[in-house]
From TrEMBL, chain A:
GO terms for cellular component: plasma membrane. This is Spermidine/putrescine ABC transporter permease. Keywords: Cell membrane, Membrane, Transmembrane, Transmembrane helix, Transport. SUPFAM superfamilies: MetI-like. It comes from Pseudaminobacter soli. Pfam families: BPD_transp_1. Its main location: membrane. The keyword Transport applies.
Automatic annotation (TrEMBL), chain B:
Keywords: Periplasm, Signal, Transport. It comes from Pseudaminobacter soli. InterPro entries: SBP, Sperm_putr-bd. Its main location: periplasm. This is ABC transporter substrate-binding protein.
Length: 280, 359
């Protein structure tokens, strides 16, 4: 039997109630409504046909495969680019300039996401900067198709998510005590060995948190593939939007959205053991 | 073509029907008799069109843009009866609205039916059980838009140029399934009004050939930009709605109605049965169909199109840009917008999805 007074026992609940209510109103209830819609036929009866359509239609499957491929590429490339950037910011840039360097690194965040995507379309276009450099330098005789391709979608995503990952990894690197490196050096480890066996494992949570956020945000993004991909292939968010915008088929759109959420859940479970921020 | 037309310029406005209902409650619900609530496409959002009506009648027109008839009906389904007064709708979809019991018959004697181009009255769609439920306000063609300095205009007189090797990698396809499926049907000698499920395999084959030649499949802004910036030289599914608005800046852009024909699109205005402002709704429809309203609608900043009223007060330059005088010949060669039933429509959309996914 608890010896705490009732008012003290109630305090934690009072503190978390706003958050619980928020989650209930803006996640649990909408999710329940979406789940219900996904299993409701036009006549109001129960049906699983919307889920069956996804598994039976190769074009729908293809959209999921495309989404997973693009998201995986974006996540890996973003991590590979962000880690060195975060390392340079944390280790090589003098302390007094770090804030400025970090601000410059995240400058792209300050512009509209849509504007940034359209800007990339112009940069990658046939008459864009990249093709002018490629043809002007003699590397290619004719312009290369960069815009309206999967590559363009990946570039647009990576540009955005490298910044996000840089922030999470930078924060992780800054939290690392210098004692770890000193201890490794005392034990005879060189810089490379120290990095592989000490620094990298300790910054893994930052990498995984950033990678998970990248995965979640990229797999659910509609704008970038729609603007930069040229509709030469469909990703899941585009397929979902087609059901809403063209068919007014909310049950199928709901089913597809829930399937996408299931994939995100699997990704979460796969990375859950690293998804904890602890001060090193 | 028209569904994506309005959506593209308002990409950020893609919201779920539930959100639209919230928006309505927040600010666009009919609070007084001095407000007209209109479900519209983007060409009706142009202040140059709305302001003269608002000022002349001392009213406020609240507009809500929507994407596709299905989404428009979804908004209505989630609204209260009487929330909306008028709706812009694809002429071919008017029977769907009538079937749902949404629309009020229009008084023919109070609207300028005699002044409309006869070919676009669309009586077979706008008249149901002897009652007229909508009036065509604007029309045009889904055909071939091109840059005449980059391609041989003579090649644009036949749809077969779209699938040959000469223009490989120089095409964009307008991302709306019905008109482009109609064009593919025309290319293989099918009448767009008679399409059945049996025609789909051959149409799909034609679509895949077009896709193989295409650099992108884009909604209005993307495909229009691609043509205007020289990213592509030909837009499959384009027409005056693409080139007319850009004529001043880029006179090299033109459109053709190939020998196989083009697909006629038309949009109509309908009044809601449950409207609480039927007099005002009728006034609005009368205004849009008036010569002045027609000229403003035809040259809307969102997209241009032919006014359905022959007496539209367009300037000579505007008429020239719209090729007003060539309309009789164009209309003679144009074929109807495909109007599949629900089952065939689903199959067509699935076919379109397969085309998009094809590598």
């Amino acid at each position: 039997m608890s010896t705490k007074p009732a008012s003290e026992r109630a305090t934690p609940w009072a503190l978390v109630t706003p958050a619980l209510l928020w989650t209930l109103c803006f996640f649990v209830l909408p999710f329940a409504a979406m789940a219900l819609t996904s299993v409701t036929a036009k006549d109001g009866s129960f049906t699983l046909s919307n889920y069956a359509q996804f598994f039976e239609n190769p074009s729908y499957w293809r959209a999921m495969v495309n989404s997973l491929q693009v998201t995986a590429i974006v996540t890996v490339v973003s991590v590979l680019l962000a880690y060195p950037l975060a390392w340079i910011l944390a280790e090589q840039v003098p302390e007094r300039f770090q804030r400025l360097a970090l601000m410059l690194a995240v400058l792209p965040f300050w512009t509209s996401y849509v504007v940034r995507s359209y800007s990339w379309l112009l940069v990658l276009a046939q008459n864009g900067v990249v093709n002018r450099v490629l043809t002007g330098s003699g590397l290619f005789a004719d312009p290369v198709q960069l815009a309206n391709t999967r590559l363009a979608t990946v570039i647009g995503f990576v540009h955005f998510f490298v910044m996000l990952l840089t922030l999470t990894i930078f924060a992780n690197l800054k939290q690392l005590s210098p004692s770890y490196r000193k201890a490794a050096a005392d034990l005879g480890a060189g810089p490379v060995r120290t990095f592989i066996h000490v620094i990298l494992p300790l910054t893994l949570p930052g990498i995984v948190v950033g990678a998970f956020l990248t995965f979640v945000l990229a797999i659910g993004d509609y704008i970038t593939p729609q603007i930069l991909g040229g509709n030469n292939e469909l990703l899941m968010p585009q397929l979902i939007m087609m059901q809403i915008g063209r068919r007014g088929d909310f049950p199928l759109a709901s089913a597809l959205a829930i399937i996408l959420m299931a994939v995100v859940t699997v990704a979460y479970l796969a990375s859950a053991r690293w998804l904890k921020i602890e001060r090193a | 073509m028209t569904n994506n037309l309005r959506s593209a310029l308002k990409r950020g406005m893609r919201v779920a029907a539930a959100a639209s209902t919230l928006a309505m409650l927040a600010g666009t619900s009919p609070l007084s008799a001095q407000e007209l609530n209109a479900l519209i496409w983007c060409d009706h959002a142009d202040p140059a069109l709305l302001q003269p009506f608002e000022e002349a009648n001392g009213v406020k027109v609240n507009v809500k843009e929507f994407e596709g008839t299905g989404a428009g009906f979804a908004i209505v389904d989630q609204s209260q009866p009487g929330d909306w007064d008028v709706m812009v709708i694809d002429s071919i979809d008017v029977p769907r609205g009538v079937e749902k019991g949404l629309f009020e018959p229009l008084p023919e004697d109070k609207l300028p039916f005699a002044d409309l181009f006869p070919e676009v009255k669309m009586d077979n769609k706008t008249v149901v059980n002897g009652k007229r439920y909508a009036i065509t306000e604007k029309f045009g063609y889904n055909t071939i838009s091109f840059n005449k300095t980059k391609v041989d205009p003579a090649d644009m007189d036949t749809l077969s140029s779209l699938t040959g090797d000469k223009y490989k990698g120089r095409l964009a396809i307008y991302d709306y399934y019905l008109p482009v499926i109609g064009m593919a049907a025309l290319a293989i000698g099918k009448k767009t009004a008679d399409l059945t499920e049996a025609d789909l395999p051959a149409i799909k084959e034609e679509l895949l050939k077009m896709k193989a030649n295409a650099k992108l499949v884009g909604e209005v802004t993307a495909s229009q930009t691609a043509l205007a910036t020289g990213e592509v030289d030909i837009l499959v599914g384009g027409g005056e709605w693409v080139t007319a608005g850009l004529a001043k800046e880029n006179p090299a852009l033109d459109f053709s109605i190939p020998k196989e024909g083009g697909v006629l699109w038309s949009q109509s205005l309908a009044m809601f049965k449950d409207s609480k402002n039927k007099d005002l709704a009728l006034k609005f429809i009368q205004y849009v169909l008036s010569p002045e309203g027609q000229a403003r609608l035809a040259t809307s900043s969102c997209y241009w199109g032919m006014p359905s009223n022959k007496k539209a007060a367009l300037t000579d330059n505007e008429k020239k840009t719209l090729r007003f005088d060539e309309q009789p010949a164009f209309l003679a060669r144009a074929q109807a917008y495909p109007a599949p039933n629900a089952d065939l429509d689903k199959k067509m959309q699935d076919m379109w999805t397969e085309m998009l996914q094809a590598q």
